[in-house]
Amino acid sequence: MNEQAYLDLCRHILHNGKDKGDRTGTGTRSVFGYQMRFDLKEGFPLLTTKRVPFRLVWSELLWFIKGDTNIRFLLENNNNIWNEWAFESWITSSKYDGPDMSDFGRRRLTDESFAADYEKEMDRFKRRILEDDDFAKEFGNLGNVYGKQWRAWRTSDGNVIDQLKEVIHSIKTNPDSRRHIVTAWDPEDVPGNMALPPCHTMFQFYVQNGELSCQLYQRSGDTFLGVPFNIASYALLTHLIANECGLEPGEFVHTLGDAHLYHNHFEQIEKQLSRDPGPLPELNIYAPEKSIFDLSIDDVGIEGYHPHPGIKAPVAV
């Protein structure tokens, strides 16, 4: 079963990983170099041992596909997964006029009074992003993150490359090429032009026997919170590009560099590992005649998804 590949990764990290410090100060247990394979003909790999909200996966991927880098689109679709990075840019700016929010990622977990202030300030931030165009332009933009690199890669001569359009054209016109690659890792932008350097850094497509497969290289994977989203997102992208190119979805191969579990996720992952996986859902593209670049949020969905309940865990920022 496809899901077993992910559960095996979690067990492997718990039992064989090494404890390390990390950028967030939370601490991780990690392994380096790990690969999972998902046969997309066996079902859509959305975890069943805990609920993974598909609409959040799809709205984030649609945001990437559109080349958008401002969280306003995400908030309009009730997607809050990028809020903390934009919020941090506001609370560290000279224009912030609220209570001290420094180190909010950890303080909100241990200080109830601070957590209440944080929620109040985050709500105020989100409202301003949605209602104030100038504020959204200044503080909702995350810099040259995924959408920018996929759709408007900056060249040395001042032009841009639409990598996603070019790779689709390449798949259609030269399916046997070994150059069906999209990269989000721009060494020039990483130091200061991105709210978060890309974790899923590069992906490559492969065509064989009328099927499209995709391999992702992910330099860093938050295995409990992030990796389930990444699996679903790139499986979905493979389905969408296969549909665009008149191919069937084949396999999604997920290669990880630093695959880690945060120390404050151990209890949650043990709970998840105690559960039995169920049948995988089916992905439906309700408007298969549309180009991937014209899809809307209601054009894609899943059926037959009956997971165990979700498991909450803190995000390390």
TrEMBL record:
UniProt keyword Cytoplasm, yes or no: yes
Catalytic activity, EC: 2.1.1.45
Organism listed in the record: Salimicrobium jeotgali
Biological-process GO terms, alphabetical: dTMP biosynthetic process; dTTP biosynthetic process; methylation
Function of the molecule: Catalyzes the reductive methylation of 2'-deoxyuridine-5'-monophosphate (dUMP) to 2'-deoxythymidine-5'-monophosphate (dTMP) while utilizing 5,10-methylenetetrahydrofolate (mTHF) as the methyl donor and reductant in the reaction, yielding dihydrofolate (DHF) as a by-product. This enzymatic reaction provides an intracellular de novo source of dTMP, an essential precursor for DNA biosynthesis.
GO molecular function: thymidylate synthase activity
Main location (coarse class): cytoplasm
Domain (Thymidylate synthase/dCMP hydroxymethylase): residue spans on this chain: 4-317
Subunit: Homodimer.
Active-site residues, record numbering mapped to chain: 199 (nucleophile), 199
Residues reported in the UniProt entry to bind dUMP: 23, 178-179, 219-222, 230, 260-262
Name used for this protein in its record: Thymidylate synthase
Listed GO CC annotations: cytosol
Subcellular location: Cytoplasm
Alphabetically ordered keywords of this record: Cytoplasm, Methyltransferase, Nucleotide biosynthesis, Transferase
Pathway where this protein functions: Pyrimidine metabolism; dTTP biosynthesis
